[in-house]
Amino acid sequence: MNQEDPGFESDHNHQHCIAQALETAHTLCRTRHQRLTPVRELVLKLVWQNHQPLGAYELLPALADAGFNSAPPTVYRALEFLQEQGFVHRIASLNAYVGCPHPERPHRSGFLICRNCKRAVELNTHDVHSALKDSAATLGFEIEQEMVEVVGLCPDCRTSGADHAQ
Amino acid sequence: MNQEDPGFESDHNHQHCIAQALETAHTLCRTRHQRLTPVRELVLKLVWQNHQPLGAYELLPALADAGFNSAPPTVYRALEFLQEQGFVHRIASLNAYVGCPHPERPHRSGFLICRNCKRAVELNTHDVHSALKDSAATLGFEIEQEMVEVVGLCPDCRTSGADHAQ
DNA sequence: GATCATTATGTTATACTATAACAATCACTT
DNA sequence: AAGTGATTGTTATAGTATAACATAATGATC
Where are the bilayer-spanning segments (chains A, B) (predicted)? Predict the structure, then answer.
């Protein structure tokens, strides 16, 4: 469906990203008999505002502006739901949340995170998963869940001279 | 040096693990002109008590028992030092810390974490790293740091019937 | 050995992240 | 319209981590 995965191209039409994410979420919720309530939809939209992972507490002011209760449980519940549906991922090393461009099917998520501009891009983890599976098999370990988070410099920040020491 | 990497074998001589880790740390600190102070050594020893990652706050009581100040900054400073030296790793998905069996040289760390017995085993991430490097290269991303954390069931817990739903 | 700069630790306070527990409301079925 | 389950509101608190400044220990230099 979504063929053009936005990588680190800074000039993609991000409104399109957001619109598509929301539409996909609505569709999937309908077929799954789940409810994309106003607060859930708003949180999803906020998380998608850009490709930089957002902390839960960064979302609270916007919830307040929209007239919702802005206590932490509100946003955490919404995030929990969105994660269960595969609409957002949590990035453990950042305690932050980011929209998922492929919520149609559950998948192992891996991220490239730019330490300079903070953008996070989901990567195809097929080969990574194969390697992990082999290592795990050798040790007799049964994989259930994988977290792959890679920090570094995105192409934009490399070329724009932002590549000074961390 | 350390040839026998403890995997998930539950019957290895763990006193040996601890003793070796401490000795290696002392040696490396000497050559690096770093100070393995009493509180740092104690934290390292505590983290090595078993192969289960420990949270920072779990270490505080033991620090108090040993007569140290047991306020959070004490343990976080020690952990920070130990991480810088490569003696321990932080596992982001658990907010916990675990001893590193190969502190001699910096390396990318990856972990297999058993959701039942909570043990964490560091795995060889050579192939995983290759796969990540390829994916990153395609996108023009420069890798600086990799976090790979895999949750599942270790061989012991699989065979002991602990493999019921999470 | 006394002085000084540096590093490490003690101490208090606070920021940040996340969840428990219970009440009130909403949405859907019957 | 009533009842049931899911969702949200609300208050409180647990869990993780760091800021900021004071004190003490260490190592280099005179």
Answer: none
pLDDT in tens, B47-68: 999 889 999 999 999 999 999 9
Which residues lie closer than 8 Å to B130 by C-beta, 6 or more apart? A131
Side chain identity at residue A131, one-letter code:
A
Question: What CATH number does the domain containing B131 carry?
Answer: 1.10.10.10
Q: B interface toward A at CB cutoff 8 Å?
A: 7-8, 92-93, 110, 112, 114-115, 121, 123-125, 127-128, 130-132, 134-136, 139-155, 158, 163, 166
A37, A87 contact by CB (below 8 A): no
Domain that holds residue A91: 12-103
What does pTM read for this prediction?
0.91
Q: At which of A50, A72, A103 does a domain end?
A: A103
Mean pLDDT (whole number) for A12-18: 88
Rounded to 5 degrees, what are φ and ψ at A97?
A: -130, 145
Give the best residue of B8, B135, B153 to mutate against chain A (max A CB count within 10 A). B135
Residue B21: the pLDDT is 96
Tell me, yes or no, whether A127 and A89 share the same domain: no
